[in-house]
Write a structure and sequence with these properties.
The complex is a heterodimer of chains A (175) and B (191). Chain A has 175 residues and is α+β, with helices and mostly antiparallel strands. Chain A has one domain: Immunoglobulin-like (Sandwich), CATH 2.60.40. Chain A is built from two helices and nine strands; from the N terminus they run αββββββββαβ. The longest helix of chain B is centred in the first third of the chain and has 23 residues.
Chain lengths: 175, 191
């Protein structure tokens, strides 16, 4: 049994390191999967998804009451401009998630006073347009998500044109 | 047995144990929240930088892209008022008063957290489409077949199910004491 002392210590250390590494890595892996599933319209572009149904569930626990618009982003070539147009009288929000799945920015329609707004998402140190509202992150990748709440799924027809006014695009001339 | 054999066995076991432990520790999902109210559980730490690595991974697995509590509180239930697992072949009464939030909804998912097809194409009820009685109480039947009267949320035949209650922009009174808030009751009426 004494022969097993060293191996068991080594196994225990490896188990601990593996568990902790996996726990830290899981969010990054899942964010990459989500970016792939939501990013079919391209990266640094806003895709206005159809409502969640059993046949269309890009993420776990999708809400069938929400119209999701998503912008999977990659800031490695520069900052991103996100333009949001709230829909009158409906809950909507922009939330920005970083590569570790943390929320780094949230604003809902009431906080926006129902008016359109623009935020610039940039990595720490990247130059940004003067006077812009800037959200800084220390990750290149992540997802910006707009939720629009519907009282009934049939409302999407009349609200679709308004939600399509929201967009995201690389900042072409940050200076 | 040679020494390196013992090391190989122990390290392979350690690797498997480590991966298994990571999966197990992060599998609690939204159910592993710190706040309990009847059959409902949540955590107000979701979607913030403040949560630890285990919570972050658990949320990423169970509710990726979840909003922070100021914006939305996500309650999860896997059981009825008596503590029994929710069974898609049974009939439940889901009822309560209007919730202290700008908007709320209750959605039915399978045990893995996905929507399941039903003929009615209904997966949720919300504050805008439930009717209240003169006591201010709304009532929805969760059952595999449509009830004779009243609102219906189709159950998932031959499967257990989970409910997620979303409260968008919960009110200050709710946020001050979410454990005491009045949440919908889930009562089994028969199978």
């Amino acid at each position: 049994m004494r022969n097993w002392f060293g191996p068991l210590i080594a196994g225990t250390i490896l188990a601990t390191v593996t568990a902790w590494t996996a726990i830290v890595v899981i969010p990054y892996g899942l964010m990459n999967v989500a970016m792939e599933r939501l990013g079919q319209g391209g990266v640094n572009r806003m895709s206005h998804g159809n409502l969640a149904t059993p046949a269309r569930q890009p993420v776990v626990r999708p809400s069938p009451d929400l119209a999701y618009s998503s912008c999977p982003y990659d800031l490695s070539d520069g900052p991103l401009a996100i333009d949001v147009t709230p829909v009158d009288g409906r809950y909507s929000s922009l939330s920005i998630f970083d590569g570790a799945t943390d929320v780094i920015f949230v604003r809902n329609d009431i906080e926006a006073e129902g008016k359109p707004y623009r935020v610039i998402l940039a990595r720490n140190g990247q130059p940004v347009p003067p006077g812009a509202e800037v959200v800084r992150t220390n990750h290149d990748k992540g997802i910006a998500l707009i939720r629009l709440l519907l009282q009934d799924p049939s409302e999407i027809g009349k609200l679709d044109a308004v939600r399509r006014q929201s967009s995201c695009a690389p900042v072409t001339n940050p200076n | 047995m040679k020494s390196w054999h013992r090391y190989a066995i122990a390290l392979a076991g350690g690797l498997a144990l480590g991966l298994g432990a990571a999966w197990w520790l992060t599998g609690g999902g939204l159910q592993g929240g710190q706040i309990v109210n009847g059959p409902w559980t949540t955590s107000l730490g979701y979607g913030t930088k403040a949560t630890g690595a285990i919570t972050r991974a658990a949320v990423a697995r169970a509710g990726l892209l979840a909003l922070p509590a100021k914006e939305t509180v996500y309650w999860s239930s896997k059981t009825d008022a008596a503590g029994a697992p929710l069974d898609g072949n049974c009939r439940y009464s889901l009822s309560g008063k209007l919730l202290d939030a700008r908007w709320w909804s209750v959605t039915i998912y399978d045990a893995a957290g996905y929507l399941v097809a039903n003929d009615a194409n209904i997966w949720s009820v919300n504050g805008a489409n439930v009717a209240t009685d003169d006591q201010g109480v709304w009532r929805v039947t969760i059952a595999p077949t449509r009830p004779i009267e009243g609102a219906w949320l189709p159950g998932i035949k031959d499967q257990s199910f989970h409910l997620t209650l979303r409260m968008y922009n919960p009110g200050p009174a709710f946020r001050a004491d979410p454990e005491k808030a009045s949440l919908p009751a889930i009562v089994k009426e028969g199978c």
